[in-house]
Amino acid sequence: MKIGFLGPKGTFTEMAARGLFETGDFIPFRTIPSCMDAVATEEVQVAVVPVENAIEGSVNMTLDYLIHKQRLPIIGGITVPIEQHLLVNPDYQGEKIDKIVSHPHAIAQCHEFLQAYYPNAEWEYMNSTGAAAEYVKNHPDLAIAAIANETAAQEYQLKMAHTNIHDFENNGTSFVVLSKESVGVSYKGSAYTEDKTTLMVTLPSDYSGALHQVLSAFAWRKLNLTKIESRPTKTGLGNYFFIIDVEGAMDDVLIPGVVSEIEALGCGVDILGSYPCYTMARNKANV
Amino acid sequence: MKIGFLGPKGTFTEMAARGLFETGDFIPFRTIPSCMDAVATEEVQVAVVPVENAIEGSVNMTLDYLIHKQRLPIIGGITVPIEQHLLVNPDYQGEKIDKIVSHPHAIAQCHEFLQAYYPNAEWEYMNSTGAAAEYVKNHPDLAIAAIANETAAQEYQLKMAHTNIHDFENNGTSFVVLSKESVGVSYKGSAYTEDKTTLMVTLPSDYSGALHQVLSAFAWRKLNLTKIESRPTKTGLGNYFFIIDVEGAMDDVLIPGVVSEIEALGCGVDILGSYPCYTMARNKANV
User: Fold this and answer.
1) In the prediction, which pLDDT does B233 show?
2) pLDDT (mean) for B196-224
3) What fold is seen in the domain B85-162?
4) Is A31's CB within 8 Å of B61's CB?
5) CB nearest B219 (choices: A56, A208, A232)
6) Which long-range contacts (CB under 8 A, 24 or more apart) does A24-32 make?
């Protein structure tokens, strides 16, 4: 199976893709839209893209392109803990680091560590944590280090000089798997956590309490929401819409009941996917 | 007044800062945390950082750092339309562009334009749209173009070869102004749109319908919500919290009423700010 992911190699998105799929051709794409387009043109069978709290790539980019440009079903999800490490060349023995390279978000996420350990090191921004690791690999003569993940350390045979240097202990990034159909896609079973259904709800107009009415349809059925996010519409269909994640798979009674009730209120409802979710174990890199 | 913003020069954040303040020292910072820290240490009086749908910098970074690390009041907001242009050196006369440079998100946002006009041009990623414009300025010998905004065009004296090349017409980025106090901060009055109050609500536990109960407190008072977003907590205080934007300024009756009612449900409530919001006019760059 051909698996597209937001590249380059050694990013958190590659980590997510390899966490979900045992085997396959893992193909990096330069942007989220090009990765999703490759599913539409059948260049790849599935695409793995970040959807929440991403280091590389933007949540909004994924949701906007999915909703407005390339409507592909969500067929799976995975949460990857954000664990950043300080990577150096394996033969590097010194203590002094002149320069730290990484994606701007990754550098910002290790703000406290850098202030405490390397207050005088210069920073240089790279396009991704993977690109930073590659840069360190290609410059063994320099006293530099990259902030990147374990996959990047393996990919570029770098040594982890410090592990888990990120400021927030429980930070994670969520990724979704997009595909034309879920048939023939199988995941590693070990890290399965729950089934989830994602809905997009468009409100008829921006009036007080509209969202409250919509949530009533979930609340009295005791359907638990794990995420709700409002986004401005870009198409003139309404003022804003909501992305709502519901615990549980699509069924014959409860979720169809919610959908007809919300539609009766004058809202638009689209089911973006009903799919299994996985969680990657934390602290893999405590070496 | 010293105004810190997420740099470098020529970014959308600088555009937001200059849209809000008539005069002042505009000081670029390398990361969102360092920009916010500079307010705490009084190096600058206010910080302007992106909070939603940003090109450079991440929404989550701003909210997370604000909530968990550096709790500064929000004292103002501005929405800037995302208008991307293709910038070339002023003496460039050719038709052929070998390479397009910009931030990965900006390149992704102009996906359709690039496919239609420059399908064969190479892309090179830069740390920001501002950095891309600077790169074009410094390489007048190359057949290259940057995707960036009007501020960057002015900053680096570049020519707009194509204007408004972004795929989505109504895309915008929201920024907030953070400061220890709002006294002595005055905005340009022209683009004022509304007052807004931002609340952070922590739910006691992840049970069905908890959010529905919280929203009831707003709904029966006919308080209109303009944004709601769920975020995972990182501190172990609860499973998740919500950032809620309410139309209208803090008053003596309605919002305090909401707060006591939500607290009676066992939730935690923090008021992150009550502040005037501004909107920058669209299509300034239709030249």
Assistant:
1) 64
2) 84
3) D-Maltodextrin-Binding Protein; domain 2 (3.40.190)
4) no
5) A208
6) A25/A1, A27/A2, A27/A3, A28/A4, A29/A4, A29/A5, A30/B104, A30/B123, A31/A6, A31/B104, A31/B107, A31/B108, A31/B111, A32/A6, A32/A57, A32/A58, A32/A61, A32/A62, A32/A65, A32/B108
